[in-house]
Amino acid sequence: MNKRRALLVGFGVGLMAGAALLQLMTFGQDISAGTALPPEPLTLAQLQEQAGGKGYAMYKLSEPMYTQAQLDEAAAKAKADALSAGGEKSGQAASGTETPASTPAPSASATPTPTQAADSGPEARLGLYVAAGDSLDKVATGLKALGVIQDKAAFVKAAKPYSGKMRVGLSVFEGQITYDEIIAELLRDKNK
User: According to the model, what pLDDT value does residue 164 have?
Assistant: First the structure.
């Protein structure tokens, strides 16, 4: 076997080199014939059609995204508001006076803490997609819009040392969490 080893290695290398050259020649013929041109870029409508065919949906980054829990909570709140507005109108018609709308009291907490997830239920899971190139300010704005944090400036101050280390992907937040837990989730590798 040792006597033929060089012959077999040479034969194998020759086959691979020949196959590579054959591919290169056919590619060169396709280019000279004009059939190997790069594909045309897709239009937005074509891209949406292809994504729909594969079972995906496309959304603009500027459009707000809501979880099912947030949508259910908003629907329940709107229904309750509609019922209370109907009750107030019937009460106003009877008494002839209007009642002023009550404003929520400001939080008594002096230290910035993440919002309590008890408002939206103990099993509420909130997600925020961190895109490539997102700044810490943009992420903090998204977290505040989701209700994960109350004070954007305090979170930015706490997370500033880690701003360049945020990982691209979907960050999921559950329950009552601290700034350290939020930062750990933003730094977690989402590709695993």
Answer: 85
If you search the block for the tokens 């209700």, which residue do you land on? 147
Angular region, 93: left φ>0, alpha ψ -120 to 50, beta rest: alpha
Q: How do residues 51-66 score in pLDDT, each as one tens digit?
A: 888 888 787 777 777 7
Amino acid identity, position 1:
M
The C-alpha atoms of residue 102 and residue 119 are separated, in whole angstroms, by: 19
Enter the pTM of the model: 0.38
What per-residue confidence (pLDDT) applies to 16?
95
Supply 53's token pair. Answer: 């065919």
Q: Are 58 and 45 in contact (CB under 8 A)?
A: no
Asked if 134 and 167 count as a contact pair (C-beta separation under 8 A), the reply is no
Looking at 3.20.20.70, 3.30.450.20, 3.30.1490.480, 3.30.420.40, the CATH number of the domain 61-71+112-192 comes to 3.30.1490.480
Instruction: Locate 107 and state its tokens.
Output: 């939080």
Q: 14 to each of 6, 19, 28, 29, 153, how far by Cα in Å?
A: 12, 9, 21, 22, 65
